[in-house]
């Protein structure tokens, strides 16, 4: 039997990130997956990032993860979404080339000397004396004290096109029946669903009648310091096109609604509310005159087009009919029909904040299996689970991230405390401390933590240290340079004449003090790059709000420092009502802070818990 420190099951987005994190911490890792070309496979849309999701990618990168580097290397075009809004909600997003994404992922994984990729199906989990001891695979047994399950949509996967049903994890891939093993271990397993649109032949689209959408000229990237030499770089960005559904499209869909897997009664599990099928959109927002559809190329050397916004489980003949009613798509050829998929997931309330299964020591879960949807959500969990699997195997410090530190912390706190009623995806609105949690400061928030845990590669750590030194020097200069309103006026900068001398850092909050104007007044600024000055101006603008948030963060950290025993029997806590006992028993909070965030928990219940707390070390 082969022995490893950590076994990762599944080389999707969660699995690859988990493998990289565990290997970076020095673990001997086996990444076991169904097909050799799994690493870097994008099951659905050819894009990474977006609002909230882009934050996750920059945080993964700041912690030494790989998704940002891979996406940068494979991009077809990139944009900063929400650019007109405040920097806290700017969302980097890249359209990527599927083939290049795989190539770049393979290159990045090949850099990890302690990682072995094994093509096999994991058929069971080995458990000894109540702890995970390894996995049973189609090519033999593997042993390890820590196993990370990242099986995506594959557990009990059933694909639906109209009334047709077929077992499978995604098109062209077998399903996995590990769900039964998880149920047998007492883990709470239930069903969710998601869907994908048809893929179109780009040569059959009339591009001449469509509107184009280009990437941003400044080509925003996810990774500040990551280096990935894989192919894509150097080729010119390519645009997407935009079209719309119309009244005729909606009529066709409505006329055939009963034939859709969802509305025909073939599926009853819940799908992602924020990524609805076109049937859902027509039923829910039927009065709209049309829904925008983005025609996204799948690669530089690929004729396939992904029609973003047309996810469906209608039969193929209906898909053909409604898609051809859309402008530019009148003659379109469908390369592959859209479909819906139902799969098993585990209620993430069964997990600790480190993503370990409470009931089965040594078992970690990450990605779609925990009820999330999206590559970025999966990858972020993978990094945490992989880092903690290595911690368990090698007796290293664990990685936990709280809500005040990162969107990753927000997501894991939401999942492990509240569970999911529908596939969970990230939004900036989920983060209460979002002024601090910006995509542009992810490295400052997280790279030191990643470094301390051995997750950040040396080249990235060096580049970060150099950038921090430059930033600190620039900030010191902005604090030193001062001017009165009168002095600014003498350079043609009109601000309120209140007679108060301010530092340049403070003046940067005033709209009249543009960066060009500041450079005119203070030639010393020549030593600061445009990007760095812009980033420091963001700090200046948010300084007052962030100071206010710091007080809330301090209060939260105080409550987070009060630990509750993992095996606390809430029924035995004096003063808790039946309802409070039920809510707390389901969520199993590990700190007083976490207990306070369980829905419906009263201040009286928190007071009742106080005698059971102890101070976290
Ligand atoms: P995956 O990327 O699915 O990877 C799972 C991996 O596990 C695979 O490599 C598989 O081979 C491997 N595996 C599974 N079982 C075993 C086993 N027993 N032994 C060995 N290996 C195994 N996300 C969105 O954000 N929006 C969408 O609209 C959307 N639509 C989707 C539509 C479809 C049809 C599908 C399939 C997925 C869709 N997704 C969507 C989800 C997106 O693909 C996932 O969120 C993301 O890929 C999850 O990453 P993961 O690492 O958890 O799993």
Automatic annotation (TrEMBL):
Keywords: Cytoplasm, FAD, Flavoprotein, NAD, tRNA processing. Belongs to the MnmG family. One of its GO terms (biological process) is tRNA wobble uridine modification. It is found in: Cytoplasm. This is tRNA uridine 5-carboxymethylaminomethyl modification enzyme MnmG. PANTHER family: GLUCOSE INHIBITED DIVISION PROTEIN A, PROTEIN MTO1 HOMOLOG, MITOCHONDRIAL. Residues 540-611 form the tRNA uridine 5-carboxymethylaminomethyl modification enzyme C-terminal subdomain domain. GO terms for molecular function: flavin adenine dinucleotide binding. NAD(+) binds at residues 271-285. NAD-binding protein involved in the addition of a carboxymethylaminomethyl (cmnm) group at the wobble position (U34) of certain tRNAs, forming tRNA-cmnm(5)s(2)U34. Gene3D superfamilies: FAD/NAD(P)-binding domain, GidA associated domain, C-terminal subdomain. Its main location: cytoplasm. Homodimer. Heterotetramer of two MnmE and two MnmG subunits. Its cofactor is FAD. One of its GO terms (cellular component) is cytosol. FAD binds at residues 10-15. It holds the Pfam family GIDA_C_1st. NCBIfam families: mnmG_gidA. It comes from Sandarakinorhabdus cyanobacteriorum.
């Amino acid at each position: 039997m082969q022995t490893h420190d950590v076994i990762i099951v599944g080389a999707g987005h969660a699995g690859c990130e988990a493998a990289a994190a565990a290997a970076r911490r020095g673990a001997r890792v086996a990444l076991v997956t169904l097909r050799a070309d799994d690493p870097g496979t994008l099951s659905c849309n050819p894009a990474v990032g977006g609002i909230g999701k882009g934050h996750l990618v920059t945080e993964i990168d700041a912690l030494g993860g790989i998704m940002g580097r891979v996406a940068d290397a494979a991009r077809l075009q990139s944009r900063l979404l929400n650019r007109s809004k405040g920097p806290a909600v700017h969302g980097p997003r890249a359209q990527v080339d599927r083939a290049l994404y795989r190539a770049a992922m393979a290159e990045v994984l090949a850099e990890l000397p302690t990682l072995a990729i094994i093509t096999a199906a994991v058929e069971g989990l080995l458990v000894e004396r109540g702890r995970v001891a390894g996995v049973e695979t189609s090519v033999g047994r593997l042993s390890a004290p820590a196993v990370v399950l990242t099986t995506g949509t594959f557990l009990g996967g059933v694909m639906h096109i109209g009334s047709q049903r077929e077992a499978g994890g995604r098109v062209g891939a077998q399903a996995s029946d590990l769900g039964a093993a998880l149920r047998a271990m007492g883990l709470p397993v239930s069903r969710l669903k998601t869907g994908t649109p048809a893929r179109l032949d780009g040569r059959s689209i009339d591009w001449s009648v469509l509107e184009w959408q280009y990437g941003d000229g400044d080509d925003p990237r996810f990774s500040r310091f990551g280096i990935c030499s894989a192919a894509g770089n150097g080729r010119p960005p390519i645009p997407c096109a935009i079209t719309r559904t119309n009244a005729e499209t909606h009529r066709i869909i409505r006329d055939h609604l009963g034939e859709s897997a969802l509305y025909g009664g073939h599926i009853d599990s819940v799908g992602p509310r924020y990524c609805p099928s076109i049937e859902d959109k027509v039923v829910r927002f039927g009065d709209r005159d049309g829904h925008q559809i983005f025609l996204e190329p799948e690669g530089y050397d690929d004729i396939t087009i992904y029609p973003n916004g047309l996810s469906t489980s209608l039969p193929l003949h209906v898909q053909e009919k409604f898609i051809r009613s859309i402008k530019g798509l009148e003659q379109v050829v469908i390369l592959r029909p859209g479909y819906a998929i139902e799969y098993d997931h585990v209620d993430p309330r069964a997990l600790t904040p480190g993503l370990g299964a409470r009931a089965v020591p040594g078992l970690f879960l990450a990605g779609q299996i925990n009820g999330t949807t999206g590559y970025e959500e999966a990858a972020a969990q993978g990094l945490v689970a992989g880092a903690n699997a290595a911690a368990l195997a090698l007796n290293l410090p664990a990685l936990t991230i709280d809500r005040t530190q990162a969107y990753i912390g927000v997501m894991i706190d939401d999942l492990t405390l509240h569970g999911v009623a529908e596939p969970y995806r990230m939004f900036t609105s989920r983060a209460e401390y979002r002024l601090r949690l910006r995509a542009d400061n992810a490295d400052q928030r997280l790279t030191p933590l990643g470094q301390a845990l051995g997750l950040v590669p040396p080249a990235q750590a060096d580049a970060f240290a150099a950038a921090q030194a430059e930033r600190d020097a620039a900030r010191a200069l902005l604090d030193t340079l001062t001017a009165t309103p009168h002095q600014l006026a003498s350079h043609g900068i009109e601000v309120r004449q209140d007679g108060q001398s301010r530092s340049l850092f403070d003046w940067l909050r005033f709209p009249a003090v543009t960066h060009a104007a500041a450079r005119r007044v203070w030639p010393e600024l020549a030593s600061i790059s445009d990007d760095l000055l812009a980033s420091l101006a963001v700090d200046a603008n948010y300084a007052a709000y962030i100071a206010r948030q710091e007080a809330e963060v301090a209060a939260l950290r105080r409550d987070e420092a009060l630990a509750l025993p993992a095996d606390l029997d809430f029924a035995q806590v004096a003063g808790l009502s039946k309802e409070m006992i039920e809510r707390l028993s389901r969520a199993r909070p590990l700190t007083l802070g976490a207990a306070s965030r369980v829905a419906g928990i009263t201040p009286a219940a928190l007071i009742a818990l106080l005698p059971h707390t102890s101070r976290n070390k």
